[in-house]
Specification:
Layout lengths: L3 H25 L1 H6 L8 H18 L6 H14 L1 H9 L13 H23 L1
Helix pairs in contact: 1-3, 3-4, 4-6, 5-6
């Protein structure tokens, strides 16, 4: 049987991997993310690089007992802030031409409810 402590430890590892991978991708291929950035939001390059910084910061917060709760709540808020991007990809899918290999529309639809799962997962861990 999995204990709450085990669940929290595994979650900390998984979230660190998710956030670190996302941060690395934001830094290595920022133009890919800019293509999916909603046109009605300002400063796409700053937002993309800023999100990478925030992702690394939140992952780091998970590894200190005193800041872990803040880290998980921050992750839930960050995932919530990404929701407009996911909706934008669905509603403007045909207009996204760069990168040449766009996310398939079906995957964009799958990603939207998955985002809600990620939000709930991080929120549950943050509220204790």
């Amino acid at each position: 049987m999995i204990t709450t402590t085990d669940f929290r430890s595994v979650s900390r590892l998984l979230w660190t991997a998710i956030l670190s991978g996302a941060a690395l991708a934001h830094v290595v291929v920022p133009t890919w993310f800019v293509a999916y950035y909603p046109s009605y939001l300002p400063w796409p390059e700053l937002a993309i690089s800023g999100s990478a910084f925030v992702e690394v910061l939140l992952a780091a917060l998970l590894w200190n007992r005193r800041t872990e709760r803040i880290g998980f709540i921050g992750i839930a808020l960050l995932m919530l802030m990404y929701m407009p991007v996911h909706v934008y990809v669905i509603t403007h899918h045909d207009a996204i031409v760069n990168p040449p290999v766009a996310i398939p529309l079906w995957l964009a639809w799958v990603r939207l409810p998955m985002q809600l799962v990620l939000i709930a997962w991080a929120y549950r861990l943050g509220r204790r």
